Fold this sequence. Notes:
By secondary structure, the protein is α+β, with helices and mostly antiparallel strands. Among the domains are: 75-177, Transferase(Phosphotransferase), domain 1; 183-252, no CATH class. The protein is built from four helices and twelve strands. β9 and β10 (201-203) form a beta hairpin.
Amino acid sequence: MDNGINPYADPGDGIMDYDLSNPMDLFYTGQASFVREPLNYHLYTQPRPENLQHKYFVSDELREELQKRSESIYITPPSGLDLPEETQGYHSLVPLEPVVGERHNFSNWHSTVYKAINSMDGFPYVMRRIENFRLISESALSGIKAWSRIRHPNLVAVKEAFTTLAFNDNSLMVVYDYHPNSETLNEAHLKSKAPQFINGRLQTQNTRVAERTIWSYVIQIASVLKTVHEAGLAVRVVDDNKILVTSKNRLAS
């Protein structure tokens, strides 16, 4: 039955005169907030047929790990952190550690680690921000430039360093290569882990490290030390909180 009302008419013609500024008006309810749930990565790709379970296909575990890393690269920061939109060509900053409460120290300064995207190449990098750092002379960055020239598969490469006022203070930013979903050596092997349900029973997790894994770590760390010393630099402290486990038994310090 035709009642003379056009449901597709423009709201400004008087037929459907809704107040668009009122968030409670029809069709314009306030924006809802959602709690982000962990993704079920196995939903993205169906299991392989039994007759194709051979070495030419990526394992389910490796596929899940790659999807987790991809999610980490493109994750966006939560609202309300008041982070700068851009600093020295880096944008989309996301904190990789708490920015309030218990803070990590870098020597005598507070520091925070962020993930950011470089506007020039589009790649993600890690930026360590050292707060309230006053640079006396540009020559003070010569040490960082020396580290940026070192290339080693078990060393987190340094890209560059610069100062910025984008955080409303004098901050020193040191940019490194990004290894998504990495853990520190302490988190991976030394820190006590919460019990997990295994076969329906709550069991403590085994933190014992296999001997072959320990030897692999020793060789990788020794190789980095040798390369650094050959470059005329020094590693004064080997800290388990500064060494990353980037993948299975693979270190980057």
